[in-house]
Amino acid sequence: MSNLKEKILNKTATLGVCGLGYVGLPLAVEKAKAGFKVVGFDVQEAKVNMVNAGHNYIGDVVNEDLAAIVASGNLCATTDFASVASCDCVCIAVPTPLDKHQEPDISYVKASTESIAPYLHKDMLVVLESTTYPGTTEELLKPILEEKSGLKCGEDFYLAFSPERVDPGNLIYKTKNTPKVVGGCTPACTDIAATMYEAVLEAPVHRVSSPAIAEMEKILENTYRNINIGLVNEIARLCNKMGISVWEVIDAAKSKPYGFQAFYPGPGLGGHCIPLDPYYLTWKAREYGFHTTLIENSMIINDSQPDYCVDRAMHILNRHKKAINGAKILVLGVAYKNDIDDYRESPAIRVVEKLLEVGADVTYYDPWVASFMEGELSMTGEKALTPELIESVDLVMVTAAHSNVDYALVQKHAKAIFDTKNVMKRIDNRDNIEVL
Ligand SMILES: NC(=O)c1ccc[n+]([C@@H]2O[C@H](COP(=O)([O-])OP(=O)(O)OC[C@H]3O[C@@H](n4cnc5c(N)ncnc54)[C@H](O)[C@@H]3O)[C@@H](O)[C@H]2O)c1
């Protein structure tokens, strides 16, 4: 048995996590809770200081858990990558966004690998968890790690890809109980990485034959969602023209016990995964002279959904003899999904931008997001959802299905409501409600 495997099995291995965000911090906490010594790495000093003070900043992490493991000395954080030398394993969970041309921005993955490489040592394991195009681990990470360390992958150190599947706000599936997929550069790399996750998680680990399989399966998962949401968004537009409720159609289709999974329309796609990941694949596919036409068509539909919502809002206001230019609009919810504080790539913010472009006077209320800054746009939300606020606007647009909003109050006081999430479906009096 390798030295590292033994250290993992008897929990004397020190585990590093690079990138202490939505993915990395819960992972670091689980590793420490499983009894390992954990070192967290981040370039943001503020996050490192918060972790070291035991102060939580991620919704999926339990405050008391973080405070307890930091106090016990099992988790510490640093900006100094020299501490990689003391780690037996480092998992990389840094951002993989798109650049301004909607192409993969792999610079964070590259920079973090370059920071780790000088401290890579024999018998060490590196696992990439960031969502990325198939080929990243072997084409990008492996050469950087080998060149900078003089060590050979599969002989001197282990390298694998294991996609993160965290679903922020999901109350059932968390980092600890979500099955993991692991693909290493060699069978030994797969085995060591799988052993490490098995020692940390209470979920099965599915081994695959290469990092590229694991990278591709993650993109397949997210593209599957992207395409199915694109499909219902398209059906929703058609249903609207035909005077049919798409929500009733989906509810009916859902009654089939097999072969159909319900997806729902909305103002577009949000978050750091579903709207971005397919672009990683379409970009990589072009290297092979291949066009991912189905995926690209779905992205065209989803990306134009905020425009469609603004168009519908304009028609609602028109029926009230009100121009959208100058209309007062209250946007309800700017987080990208219900009951979380993350607004990255939020379609609701795209809606706000587009409403401002056509001259609307926009305010927002979101119990989870007090203020936001996205590109050029920064806004502070209304502090409370009062009858006076609701009565003061021409239209309320519901763009996130938060469960801690009093929708009955909204219905009672609003002149007109455009509910893009069908969150008001249980409200009987529907005279002022229009649904996507
Ligand atoms: N958030 C999700 O729901 C989710 C789910 C599954 C997969 N993912 C994937 O996981 C990856 C991370 O996403 P996230 O949501 O945790 O991002 P995040 O922005 O919340 O966290 C990333 C962290 O990495 C740090 N960082 C950036 N460059 C660094 C460097 N060179 N060295 C060390 N740290 C660095 C940042 O400061 C930040 O704290 C992405 O590839 C994403 O697609 C995210």
What would the keywords be for this entry?
binds nicotinamide-adenine-dinucleotide; 15 helices; 8-stranded mixed sheet; alpha/beta; 39% helix; 5-stranded parallel sheet; 436 residues
Description:
There is one protein chain. The strands form three sheets. An eight-stranded mixed β-sheet has the order 3-2-1-4-5-6-7-8, with helices on both faces. Strands 10-9-13-14-15 form a five-stranded parallel β-sheet, covered by helices on one side. The radius of gyration is 24 Å and the shape is elongated. It is an alpha/beta fold and 436 residues long. Helix 5 runs parallel beside helix 6. It has helices spanning 3-9, 24-33, 45-52, 63-71, 107-116, 136-149, 187-200, 211-242, 246-253, 277-286, 293-303, 305-319, 347-357, 387-391, 407-413; strands spanning 14-18, 37-41, 75-78, 89-92, 125-128, 158-161, 180-184, 205-208, 328-332, 361-365, 371-374, 377-380, 395-398, 417-419, 433-435. A hairpin with a 2-residue loop joins strand 11 and strand 12 (377-380). The protein is 39% helix and 14% strand. It contains 15 helices and 15 strands. The structure holds nicotinamide-adenine-dinucleotide.
